[in-house]
Design the sequence.
């Protein structure tokens, strides 16, 4: 194995670690909502520092690889993709932190019925599976798996789209619980954004593997 | 820290021309140190001080200390012994017009080793370390000049390794080779640092970046900056270094 | 440049080429005529007894046995004397003495010696070896004289061959901790051997044809015996030919022609070997 290959391998491992960490953050943030577990939410807030530190380390690694080993062709795309995926993961980490903060604001007073009506559990399940798949797609260079997330992102969008009306209807009926309802709406918004970042990651995996650019609406045929 | 090689306030003149100006630097064992800088900056000169190859140049004069394992290279160590401990690989592949085997065995033979079994063992060990064994093991009695340029250079590395030096100096070892051969030499250097201390002079900054752990930048006989390669190539302290590695001068 | 000028210079160019060709052809033609003439005269004379017969007053019974044997023994001793001295001197001058005045002085003198007419060497040999050392007109005296004659050639060839050994090879050897002597013996001389051998063979082919210095030191014209030791008197093929040519009888001229053919053959073979070694060596060694 050449020096460059060694460095790329360890970069891939670092980013996979980062993805695992972010997955755990998302999982814990949603679990803290569903299980009404404030300790878990606090843990998410605490771990956010680790996510940030890991992001900086991966950025530095990419910088060193570019400066010292001048990768070209698919090696270069790999480092670029990793750099961008790193930023996306960090944002997902931020959303996990945001969700945890919203959960703490809600003080365990969320209405189970509303959560069910908003389909939030399902939304989380889909988003989490997408995150898992896109992580595996990255670590195994599996562009087919990466493509599988695009269609599922539409589910998240749909849940998000109908959420506003549901919350409005609910608020009209339960005016005293409007705050919790709005917090839940914010959580759904954040999960929707998580989905968007996951599709960005999928695009980068495909860019690395196939040198195809799917950004900015070029993935029409991918969805068909 | 027990440094392998050190230069302390080292100066060198060729006649009236001062080629090295008050250089102080220390090289750690089992590392790759790259010397970079524009032509005539003194990087090769400093390299050649460490095994006294400058002695062969008439009118060269030194001041200051050069140390190998804390011993003064110019006072405490006999020159022939020094060159056995500090081997050198040159810019152009320069195998002797002998067989592959005899090229590698040369250093052993001049040390009076003629035992066939021992020679064969050492030759194999050296060729394996130089990543050449698999390519030549069936043709050890062919002329070294029948090899390609890249193979010849690896043969020269094997020849240097055969006497088991602790330090290997390399003076632009890949500058006369094609890119594939260069890549092989670079990977080899990267591997060799596990067993040897390596100092490499190169005109190719990417090469320095790829293979070295620390990099020294020289300009007009002065040591401008000496730091971790990662640091020097991503965020150098000195503006001269920055300008040189970004190709703005030199 | 104008067009007519261009045409003019092209014509000059072509004319020169054809003049050169004409002279070359002329020179070769003369050589061819000479060789043909000699072949016609001498070829029929060459048979086995020509090699095995002693010289005789009768042209038909004369042979070159003693001349051939004398020449071979003379060359043997010449080589024995000249090669070690020549190579060592060449190595010294090129590897060790490049920067002292003594070596520079010797260098100039050797270059001059190579241009001295061979008869002068004969006189030198007569004074020093024949008279001063009291060797008489023996094989040894002749060998010393010829050795002196070819030494400059060997020295110059050795130096040229050693100079052609790239400095990078020496550097490589020094870089491994070799001493100067180890470097010279194990790297420089083996690498230069092709050139040195070529020089030696060419110098031998020069010695083969020499007559004048040998006459001066008193090589015999008529020797009815084969030399048995270094102190014996001797004759050589060129002297034998010289002797036959000076006879009035036509039959001896034929003998001379036959002798010349043998002499030419020996020279050509030696030169051929030299060319072979050179080309073979340079094919194997590319720096």
Sequence:
């Amino acid at each position: 194995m050449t020096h460059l290959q060694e460095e790329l391998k360890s970069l891939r491992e670092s980013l996979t670690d980062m993805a695992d960490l972010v997955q755990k953050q998302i999982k814990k943030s949603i679990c803290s909502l569903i299980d009404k577990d404030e300790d878990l939410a606090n843990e998410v807030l605490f771990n956010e520092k680790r996510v940030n530190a890991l992001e900086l380390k991966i950025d530095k690694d990419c910088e060193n690889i570019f400066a010292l080993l001048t990768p070209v062709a698919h090696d270069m795309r790999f480092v670029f993709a990793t750099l961008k995926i790193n930023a996306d993961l960090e944002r997902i980490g931020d959303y996990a932190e945001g969700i945890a903060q919203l959960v703490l604001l809600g003080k365990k007073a969320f209405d189970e019925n509303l959560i069910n009506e908003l389909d939030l559990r399902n939304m989380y399940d889909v988003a989490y599976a997408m995150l898992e798949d896109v992580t595996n797609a990255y670590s195994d260079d599996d562009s087919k798996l990466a493509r599988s997330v695009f269609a599922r992102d539409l589910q998240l969008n749909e849940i998000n789209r109908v959420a506003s009306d549901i919350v409005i209807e609910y608020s009209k009926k339960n005016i005293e619980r409007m705050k919790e309802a709005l917090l839940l709406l914010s959580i759904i918004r954040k999960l929707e954004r998580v989905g968007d970042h996951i599709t960005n990651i999928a695009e980068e995996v495909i860019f690395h593997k196939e040198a195809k650019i799917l950004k900015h609406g070029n993935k029409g045929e991918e969805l068909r | 820290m027990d440094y392998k090689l050190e230069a302390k306030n080292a100066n060198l003149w060729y006649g009236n021309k001062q080629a090295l100006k008050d250089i102080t630097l220390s090289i750690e064992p089992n590392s790759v140190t790259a010397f970079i800088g524009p032509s005539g900056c003194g990087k090769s000169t400093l390299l050649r001080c460490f095994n006294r190859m400058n002695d062969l140049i008439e009118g060269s004069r030194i001041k200051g200390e050069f140390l190998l394992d804390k011993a003064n290279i110019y006072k405490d160590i006999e020159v022939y012994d020094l060159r056995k401990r500090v081997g050198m690989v040159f810019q152009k592949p320069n195998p002797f017009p002998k067989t592959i085997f005899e090229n590698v065995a040369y250093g052993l033979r001049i040390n009076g080793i003629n035992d066939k079994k021992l020679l064969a063992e050492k030759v194999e060990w050296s060729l394996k370390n130089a990543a050449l064994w698999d390519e030549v093991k069936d043709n050890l009695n062919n002329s070294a000049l029948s090899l390609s340029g890249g193979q010849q250079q690896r043969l020269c590395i094997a020849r240097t390794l055969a006497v088991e030096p602790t330090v290997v100096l390399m003076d632009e070892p890949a500058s006369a080779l094609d890119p594939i051969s260069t890549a092989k030499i670079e990977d080899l250097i990267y591997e060799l640092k596990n067993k040897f201390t390596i100092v490499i002079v190169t005109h190719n900054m990417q090469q320095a970046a790829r293979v070295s752990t620390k990099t020294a930048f020289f300009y007009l006989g002065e040591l401008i900056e000496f730091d971790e390669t990662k640091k020097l190539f991503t965020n150098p302290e000195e503006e001269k270094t920055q300008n040189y590695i970004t190709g703005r001068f030199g | 440049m104008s067009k007519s000028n261009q045409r003019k210079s092209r014509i000059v160019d072509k004319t020169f080429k054809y003049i050169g060709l004409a002279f070359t052809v002329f020179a070769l033609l003369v050589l061819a005529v000479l060789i043909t003439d000699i072949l016609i005269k001498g070829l029929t004379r060459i048979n086995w007894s020509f090699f095995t017969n002693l010289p005789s007053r009768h042209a038909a019974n004369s042979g070159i046995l003693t001349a051939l044997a004398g020449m071979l023994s003379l060359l043997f001793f010449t080589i024995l004397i000249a090669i070690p001295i020549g190579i060592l001197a060449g190595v010294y001058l090129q590897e060790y003495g490049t920067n002292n005045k003594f070596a520079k002085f010797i260098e100039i003198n050797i270059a001059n010696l190579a241009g001295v007419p061979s008869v002068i060497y004969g006189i030198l040999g007569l004074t020093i070896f024949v008279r001063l050392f009291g060797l008489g007109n023996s094989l040894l005296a002749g060998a010393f004289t010829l050795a002196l004659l070819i030494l400059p050639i060997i020295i110059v060839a050795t130096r040229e061959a050693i100079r052609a050994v790239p400095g990078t090879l020496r550097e490589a050897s020094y870089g491994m901790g070799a001493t100067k002597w180890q470097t010279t013996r194990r790297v420089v001389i083996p690498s230069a051997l092709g050139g040195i051998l070529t020089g030696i063979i060419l110098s031998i082919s020069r010695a083969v044809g020499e007559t004048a210095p040998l006459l001066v030191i008193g090589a015999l014209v008529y020797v009815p015996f084969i030399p048995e030791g270094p102190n014996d008197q001797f004759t050589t093929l060129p002297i034998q030919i010289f002797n036959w040519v000076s006879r009035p009888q036509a039959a001896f001229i034929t003998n001379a022609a036959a002798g010349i053919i043998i002499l030419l053959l020996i020279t050509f073979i030696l030169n051929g070997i030299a060319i072979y070694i050179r080309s073979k060596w340079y094919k194997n060694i590319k720096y």
